[in-house]
Amino acid sequence: MPLNEWIPQMAEGCIITIKLFITVFVLSLPLGLILTFLYTTKNKAINGIVGLYILIMRGTPLLLQIFFVYFGLPYAPVIGKYLTINDRFTAGAVAFILNYAAYFAEIFRGGLLSVDKGQYEAAKVLGLNDMQTRFKIVLPQMFRISLPAVSNEAIVLIKDTALITAIGLTDLLKVTKTIVNRTTNISAFAVAALFYLVMSYVLTLVFKFLEKKFSF
Amino acid sequence: MSLMQINNLKKSFGQLEVLKDISLTVEQGDVIAILGPSGSGKSTFLRSLIDLETVDGGDIIIEDNYLCKDGKYQPAKQRRETLKKMGMVFQHFNLFPHMDIEKNLMLAPLCNKQADKAQLKKEALDTLRKVGLEEKLHEMPGNLSGGQKQRVAIARALMRKPDILLFDEPTSALDPELTGEVLNVIKDLSKEKMTMLIVTHEIGFAHEAANKIMFMDGGYVLAFGTPEEVLDRSGNARIEAFLKKVL
Ligand SMILES: Nc1ncnc2c1ncn2[C@@H]1O[C@H](COP(=O)(O)OP(=O)(O)OP(=O)(O)O)[C@@H](O)[C@H]1O
Ligand SMILES: [Mg+2]
């Protein structure tokens, strides 16, 4: 099979990869933010639950979590039939989102801790209320401080999407593997590497731009 | 009636009694320099007046409104109302680093619906002009020198049109050659009869710009009076020892 036949196939695989990346990134960021808020409230029980959640998500393999969501959940007693996700993409995305939200929660928590306490004091003596302080003073600085770590996580994610192959989705990696099997020619792997590299590089550029734009 | 009345303030951090019995009357137009050795509770006292520290006992009365009475605080909403006419300037400026100078100045008055945006823009420029920094309107705080940052911080506090301004060591984080520009702004404010409480280690400035000196030591007011009374002829050994050390 000649090159001009695999490239379009691989590009199609790339679309799935990019779709997964965007879905996960866009949804896990706000979920991570919500987890950060829950983790930093004064309620001990809520802190405990979120802490445990983060521990599990970061302490077990993502691949295991993907299998659990896709193959495992349907067997859950009683509620299993409500938790069945038949669509591979959706199931994979759910696992990724739950996992990445935990990482983003930790990143944001770190960002929150680095906001100087003088900022809260200045806001208070200027008469800002808690909401105004949170949304106008604290969050923008937290995001800015978190940006390099979020950028790093985004690049890890674009490569991690390859794990979705394990539940049979035809992403870039899966397409590549099929081509190699059929043609017994390993150069498709090199092309795939190039695709991943380009995507990572584009992400790097985007985040560099954001860091510059929001520098202070 | 005085502008601010403080009676028998007490405050501990755990076992450590920082404020033991502090009383003070502040009249309109007073410029009170607060002096004292490190750890004597100057910052704690100042911060208590604007609700950044919670005292354990005593009264704080600002323009006839109780912030706290006998150590019992008013509800948050009322405290906010009482403190509307108070401003504070910090040692480390605490400007909002993610906003330009204009936004730093306008944020609080906008949030508090003090005036409409066009009016506030004009006020921001006027206030910056007052501290000599109108050309920095669209600069980010990170690009200013320490002295400029502190003048912006003063302008930001002025935007709320305070009746009383508190300063906690406004020049201590500055290189010596930059303290003058900040002290001059404070002197200008005193000419306009702004009421100010200033914690400072600049004895010369205190002598020149303040009409009253409050000397704190060990959680008490050791002396209160005119600069001459407190600095030149207190006859108090501890004050003299302190002055000898800082001069
Ligand atoms: N949040 C806090 N928790 C515990 N102890 C505190 C706290 N804030 C201040 N202290 C202690 O209270 C005492 C008085 O502190 P304060 O900052 O009011 O002194 P100060 O007169 O402003 O000193 P300096 O001239 O060094 O600024 C010090 O012993 C300090 O360590
Ligand atoms: Mg102090």
Considering the chains and any ligands shown, give keywords for the structure.
heterodimer; A: 216 residues; mainly alpha; 80% helix; B: 247 residues; alpha/beta; six-stranded mixed beta sheet; five-stranded antiparallel beta sheet; binds magnesium ion
Main interface pair? Answer: A-B, 19 and 26 residues
Tell me the fraction of residues in β-strands of chain B, as a range. Answer: 25-35%
Q: Let me know the average pLDDT of chain B.
A: 96
CATH topology of chain A, by name, is MetI-like fold
The whole-angstrom Rg of chain A is: 21 Å
Number of strands of chain A: 0
Explain the overall architecture.
The complex is a heterodimer of chains A (216) and B (247). Helices cover 80% and strands 0% of the residues of chain A. By secondary structure, chain A is mainly α. In chain A, helix 1 packs across helix 9 (187-213) and helix 3 packs across helix 5. The longest helix of chain B is centred in the C-terminal third of the chain and has 16 residues, at 176-191. Chain B has helices at 42-49, 76-82, 101-111, 117-130, 146-158, 176-191, 203-209, 227-232, 237-246, and strands at 4-13, 16-26, 31-35, 57-62, 65-69, 72-73, 86-89, 164-168, 195-199, 212-217, 220-225. The radius of gyration of chain B is 18 Å and the shape is globular. In chain B, the strands form two sheets. Chain B has a six-stranded mixed beta sheet with strand order 7-8-9-3-10-11, sandwiched between helices. Chain B has a five-stranded antiparallel beta sheet with strand order 2-1-4-5-6. The mean pLDDT of chain B is 96. The N and C termini of chain B lie far apart (37 Å). At the A-B interface, helix 6 and helix 7 of A face strand 7 and helix 3 of B. Residues 13, 16, 18, 36, 38-44 of chain B line the site of adenosine-5'-triphosphate (ATP). Residues 42-43 of chain B line the site of magnesium ion.
